[in-house]
Amino acid sequence: MSAENTEKLLEILQEKIEWLTKMRDITEKCGIMLENDDVDAFLRSLEKREDIIGKIDACSQIELRLPISDDERVIRKKQAIRDLTADIIRMDDQNTAAAAEMLESYKKQLKNINEKRHGIGRYTNAYQQSEAYYFDEKK
Length: 139
Known about the structure:
Blueprint: H1 3-35, H2 39-65, H3 72-126
Helix pairs in contact: 1-2, 1-3
């Protein structure tokens, strides 16, 4: 591989590392947002992640067009990319589990609210006023 192609590959790999680092930071913040029950900020973070994923994919497409290099610097950068990806996957798994717990909690709360609402409706419907007839005794 020529020195020019190696340098180009190193630039692409460095850019990919930077995007993956940003994605890892956002993923970490997503976990905090889930713990704090900040759903709106969590959804905005997911949108940012989608943008970053597109940029990472673009870097990967360029990387695939370049020849393979055995340069030590390239190998180190690729290892850093694998490490970042593993961190992101681990955090995503934790966030997914936390989101599933949160969703289950919301389902229980909604079910509880609905049961109470139906219970109150039954109680009030049983004692609704209706027309009444009163009979006086003859004197």
